[in-house]
Amino acid sequence: MPQDGLLRRVLTLAGAVFLVLATSALGQTNETAISASAHELVRRAVDNELRSANSSLRYAYRLRKQTPNGSSVKQIAETNDGQVSYLLMMNDQPLSEEQRRTEDEKTPVKGTKRR
User: Fold this and answer.
1) C-alpha 13: how far from its chain's center?
2) Separation of alpha carbons 11 and 17, rounded Å
3) DSSP conformational letter for 112
4) Which helix (H) or strand (E) holds 33?
5) Cβ neighbours of residue 33 under 8 Å, at least 6 residues apart?
6) What does the alpha-carbon distance between residue 63 and residue 83 come to, in Å, rounded to a whole number?
7) SS3 at position 58
8) Quick one: which of 74, 50, 44 has its CA closest to 62?
9) Which residues, listed in sequence order, are joined to residue 93 by a DSSP beta bridge?
10) Which residues, in sequence order, are CB contacts of 95 under 8 Å at separation 6+?
11) What's the CA gap between 85 and 62, in Å, rounded?
12) d(C-alpha 98, C-alpha 12), whole Å
């Protein structure tokens, strides 16, 4: 009796539609408003991510991180392959010559040979 399954689905759908119409007739609840705005937020976020993935625009910025052990400041640049960071300061002090050499060895500049 395949038609019994079809009838059951149609009745279930009709019941769901009735409940939605009955709820909207009583006025829109906060939950429905939140749900609609959450859906719109997700849609806009996905659209924004898709647009930015196809953009040639890249950013560079400085990031200061404070921990119980001290602080660090890094220069971060976005590339097509991800982010590249370079340590600039430790505990609000410029890097020593040795720390700078170590950082230079970790972060080779594109187009130059590593020493």
Assistant:
1) 36
2) 10
3) S
4) helix 30-53
5) none
6) 12
7) coil
8) 74
9) 90
10) 87, 88, 89, 103
11) 9
12) 72
Q: Which residue is listed with tokens 């040979």?
A: 113
Count CA within 13 A, CB hemisphere, residue 59.
5
| Residue 112 or residue 71, greater confidence | 71
pLDDT at 30 over 70: no
Q: How many CB atoms lie within 10 A of CB 63?
A: 12
Give pLDDT, residue 1: 44
- Which pLDDT score is estimated for 5? 53
Tokens 């040795």 locate to 98
- Short-list 106, 103, 85, CA closest to 94: 103
Q: How many CB atoms lie within 10 A of CB 71?
A: 13
CA 43 to chain centre: 13
| Residue 115 vs residue 9, higher pLDDT | 9
Phi, psi of 67 (to 5 degrees): -130, 170
Q: How far apart are the first and last CA of the chain?
A: 78
Phi-psi region of 82 (alpha: psi -120 to 50; beta: other; left: phi over 0): left
Q: What is residue 43's predicted lDDT score, i.e. its pLDDT?
A: 85
